[in-house]
Amino acid sequence: MTRFTPEELEAARDRLVPDVVADGLHVLFCGINPGLMTAATGHHFARPGNRFWPVLHLSGFTPRLLKPSEQRELLSYGFGITNVVARATARADELSAEEYREGGRQLALKVARWRPRWLAVVGITAYRAAFDDRKAGVGPQERTIGDTRVWVLPNPSGLNAHWTARTMAEEFARLRVAAEEG
Fold it and tell me: Is the pTM of this model over 0.85?
C-alpha cells in the first residue's frame, strides 16, 4: 500500500470519491463518508485497520479477500459502494447534522435511481442521523426506499472495538443470506 505523508492526506480533505455502482445491484453498501486515506487513494474503505474488506470476505459476500484497489470487482458479484456524505474528512465527527440529513436525502435519490435490492448502511449512528431514526438498531429496518429494503450493519472502522471481525461477519452474513433469498 502507498504511504502518504500527513500533508498528502490533508490535501485529500473534502475530495469526492466516485461511487462503485450499477443498476439493479443485489446490495449497495453505504459507508458514512470517505476518510482521508480513501480520498487519497480513490478506493473505498482504504484505511489500514478498516475491517470492511476482511469482513465482506469472512461473511461469504466475496470468494476471496479483495483489496480496496479491487473495489470494482464487487460489481461482478452484484454489489456496490456509496456513502451517506460524499466529502472526505479525517473523522466522521467532523460532519454536521445537516450534512447527514442532506446525505440521507441524496442517498434516497441514488437508491431510487439504481434500484438495488438492499441498501446496507455501515454505521448505526450515520443511519440514525441521515434518516432521523433514533431508535434504529443493527439489522433489517422497516424503512424501504421504493422497493429497496434497508439493513444497518456495524461500522467496520477499527475504532468500533465492541464489534469484532467475527461478530461483524456474522451480521454481514445475515444480510448475505437475506439478499440471496430475494
Answer: yes
Tell how far CA 80 is from the center of its chain.
9
The residues assigned a catalytic role are 33, 44
Distances (CA, A) of 101 to 30, 48, 84, 97: 15, 28, 9, 6
Percent composition of the chain: helix, strand, coil (DSSP 3-state, to 5): 40, 15, 40
Report the distance separating Cα 5 and Cα 45, nearest Å: 18
Q: Which three cell numbers stand for residue 77?
A: 458479484
Give the dihedral sign, CA 139/93/58/82. Answer: positive
**Rounded Cα gap, residues 88 and 37, in angstroms:** 9
List the CATH number of the domain containing 139: 3.40.470.10
Q: How confident is the model at residue 49 (pLDDT cuts 50, 70, 90)?
A: confident
Query: Considering the domain boundaries, does residue 1 fall inside one?
Result: no
Residue 113 pLDDT exceeds 90: yes
| Number of domain units in the chain | 1
Residue 46 located in a structural domain? yes
Mean pLDDT for the chain?
A: 94
Residue with cell 442517498: 107
The pLDDT value given to residue 1: 59
Q: Does pLDDT of 96 surpass 70?
A: yes
User: Is residue 97 in some structural domain?
Assistant: yes
- Residue 96, domain extent: 6-181
